[in-house]
Design a protein that fits this description.
Elements lengths: L4 E5 L2 E5 L8 E6 L23 H14 L4 H4 L4 E2 L7 E3 L9 E2 L4 E4 L6 E5 L3 E8 L3 E8 L1 H5 L2 H13 L6 E5 L9 E2 L1 H10 L6 E3 L8 E3 L2 H11 L7 E3 L24 E7 L10
Parallel strand pairs: 4-6, 5-7, 11-15
Antiparallel strand pairs: 1-2, 2-3, 3-16, 7-10, 8-16, 9-10, 9-11, 12-14, 13-14
C-alpha cells in the first residue's frame, strides 16, 4: 500500500513515499514555503509561466531538488511541459537539448534514470504513477477537470504500457494536494458531464452561489482514482493525500482561492541514477 509522508529540509516541505527511494525512485508534492519568490508568489513558486521572476523560480526549483538530494548533473536535466488541460502524454527517454519544456502536454513519462519530471499545479490534481515491477518507469500527470474528462490519467497508464511494457497491476499511484470537494463548486452543466463520465462519483447540489445560480460539488481526486482503477491500477495501490489547496493557502497555492494571481506548487519525480546514495528523510 503506497503512503505519503510530510518531510522537511530547512524551510522546504514536501510529501513523499519514503519507501520508494530504496527502490531508486523519488517523488515530491511540494508545499509553498521556503523559497525565494515575493508576493503574490510567496515563496516556493515552481512555475515560470505565472509572471514571477525567472531567477527566483530557477532558485526555487534548485532548492527543492537539493532537498531531494538530486545532484547538480541531475538537476540540469529537469523537464517540464506547457500544460493545456488536455490528454497528451509525452515520452522522455533522453534529455532534450536546449529548452527542456514539452509543448501542449499534460503528462510526462520516462524509464530513464536521472531525468526529473516536473508538473506545476494550484488546485488541479497532480498524480504520480510509479511502476514497481521488474521495469522501472514513472509518470507525472497534471489533471484539471477538463483533462479528467479526457481521461488523462488512463492515457498515462496506457502510455507506460505501450512504451515500456508496464503492467497496470504493477503501478502505485499517488494523488497529491488539490482543491477539495468543500471548496470546488461547478455549474450544473459541468456536473452533468462528470455524472455521465463517472456515474459512481457522488455529487452534492447546493442552493446557489453569490449570484443565486445553483452549483454542484464533487471530489476530483475520487474521479482520478476511478479512472486509474478502470485502467487496471489496483484500488489498494492508490493513495490520496487529501489536502485541500483552497482551504490551506498558507501551505499551498490555490488559483481559485487567490483569484487567479498566485504561484504553483510542484509535483516532481525522478528515477535515481545508480550512483545516487540512499537518503532517509
Amino acid at each position: 500500500m503506497p503512503t505519503l509522508t510530510r518531510c522537511v529540509w530547512g524551510n522546504i516541505t514536501w510529501h513523499t513515499d519514503p519507501e520508494l527511494r530504496p527502490e531508486g525512485v523519488v517523488i515530491a508534492f511540494s508545499e509553498r514555503t521556503g523559497g525565494r519568490s515575493v508576493p503574490p508568489y510567496t515563496t516556493l513558486n515552481m512555475s515560470d509561466r505565472v509572471g514571477d521572476d525567472p531567477a527566483a523560480v530557477a532558485e526555487n526549483r534548485k532548492l527543492l531538488m537539493m532537498a531531494l538530494h538530486l545532484d547538480p548533473e541531475v538537476q540540469a536535466r529537469l523537464h517540464s511541459c506547457v500544460q493545456v488541460h488536455g490528454a497528451t502524454v509525452a515520452r522522455v527517454d533522453e534529455p532534450l537539448s536546449g529548452d527542456q519544456v514539452l509543448p501542449d502536454t499534460d503528462a510526462l513519462i520516462t524509464a530513464t534514470p536521472g531525468i526529473p519530471l516536473l508538473i506545476c499545479v494550484a488546485d488541479c490534481v497532480p498524480v504520480f504513477l510509479v511502476a514497481r515491477g521488474a521495469r522501472k518507469a514513472l509518470a507525472a500527470i497534471h489533471s484539471g477537470w477538463k483533462g479528467m474528462l479526457a481521461r488523462i490519467s488512463a492515457a498515462a497508464v496506457e502510455a507506460l504500457h505501450d512504451a515500456y511494457g508496464i503492467d497496470p497491476a504493477d503501478i502505485s499511484a499517488y494523488i497529491g494536494p488539490y482543491i477539495g470537494p468543500e471548496s470546488f463548486e461547478v455549474s450544473p452543466k459541468v456536473a452533468a458531464q462528470f455524472a455521465e463520465a463517472f456515474p459512481e462519483l457522488p455529487q452534492v447540489a447546493h442552493e446557489g452561489d453569490a449570484d443565486g445560480e445553483p452549483t454542484v460539488s464533487f471530489d476530483l481526486g475520487t474521479a482520478v482514482s476511478l479512472t486509474l482503477q478502470e485502467a487496471g491500477v489496483p484500488a489498494s495501490a492508490i493513495t490520496i493525500l487529501g489536502d485541500d489547496t483552497a482551504a490551506k493557502t498558507t501551505l499551498y497555492y490555490s488559483y481559485r482561492a487567490q483569484n487567479g494571481v498566485t504561484g504553483r506548487q510542484a509535483a516532481l519525480a525522478c528515477l535515481l541514477p545508480e550512483t545516487t546514495e540512499a537518503v532517509h528523510v
